[in-house]
């Protein structure tokens, strides 16, 4: 794969579409939350924290529409619905785990830089 200008991330490039789908903060967090197995909507809201039920529903639908997440409805009373990664979604486990490890290692440095930049702008 070449990263030369004009060869990747063009408007009609599948790589660009894939990046746009997972670039949302909630998409990556949701995919990471599902990496250990199926979860119900309420469990995801609690595990993720800070996401509204509406935004999570929109995120799950978007991930479903691109084949990364599947929704399983169980014929129970009351109905039980679980979300899980598809086979394609599971291929994102390793990259998201690596990105999460990087964020844990560098999050404080980014926050410190951000604080310094805000102080200088004041």
TrEMBL record:
InterPro entries tied to this protein: HTH_HxlR (IPR002577), WH-like_DNA-bd_sf (IPR036388), WH_DNA-bd_sf (IPR036390)
Entry keyword annotation includes Transcription regulation: yes
Any Pfam family hit: HxlR
Keyword NAD recorded: no
Entry's transmembrane regions: none
Stretches assigned to the HTH hxlR-type domain: 13-111
Keywords: DNA-binding, Transcription, Transcription regulation
Protein name: Winged helix-turn-helix transcriptional regulator
Organism: Streptacidiphilus cavernicola
Source taxonomy: Bacteria, Bacillati, Actinomycetota, Actinomycetes, Kitasatosporales
